[in-house]
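Subject: Predicted fold for DUF300-domain-containing protein, 281 residues

User T.R. writes:
Posting the sequence so we have a shared reference for the thread.
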Amino acid sequence: ITFKTLMICITAICVCLTTISAITLASKHLRRYTVPKEQRQIVRIVSMPMFFAIVSLLSVLFYQQSIYLKPLMAAYEAFCVAGLFFLFLEYVCPEEEKRTAYFSAVENKDKKGNVIPGGSLLWFNVRNSPPFLRSTQRTWVCVLQFPLMKALLTIAEIGTQAGNVYCANSLSPDYAHLWLLLIDIFILGPALTALFKFYGRLKPVFPRKHHALAKLVAFKGIVIFQFLLDVIFGILNGKTFKPSAKFTYNDLYYGLPMMITAFQALCFSLAFHWAFRSRMY
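User M.O. replies:
I've generated the structure tokens; pasting them so everyone works from the same file.
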């Protein structure tokens, strides 16, 4: 048995288990579809591990095509980040027409605890806010820029891969990998930070039955783990991992990280049953 065959078997098992887990959880919400604005976001998020696992299996099966498949995971992930933000909005202020007034009324405090006028999150009324607040507290901009920019980065990555100027194993400025990685870090950081700040600032307002912190931790776990996996293998594949009689270059470069991704997807899919439970609906 070759190492690739072993990886295919392991990844296929992970895909089957992840698919069963994700469909089971999604079907629970769909059977109790009593709050559509919340549950449509939940179904989208809990389907993410299944999508990751399927893409991972296809990438292990078809090494050369994996460079065009893998970026799709990041794009789906980015839209789920926005989905989690919209879910939190529903928890805090379900009536959309009242959000401007609601967030404007939230007190904003400086490091010394003094109240700063203008509202904490400055929802859509940033035009009338003090200049020093406009650039720092546009929570919705920080989050919603992520799926848009990530979609553009995905197109750029697929295009540069096709043009043989991406080179994932190199951090040379001569290749697109370095620049796209830096842009990715630049857009990911504000989105995650904004979500954490949003939760931290409004933590007392979140209904306890929804376990918002569990959702945030579980979802951010899969996002951060995938990001670190990409960075680690991007570095190690060019230096530490070398082909041998048992492992080909393609096994280490394409197969191994995607097999780990499939296993990670299975683990988080199971964790989502705890974080995104349906019993409160």
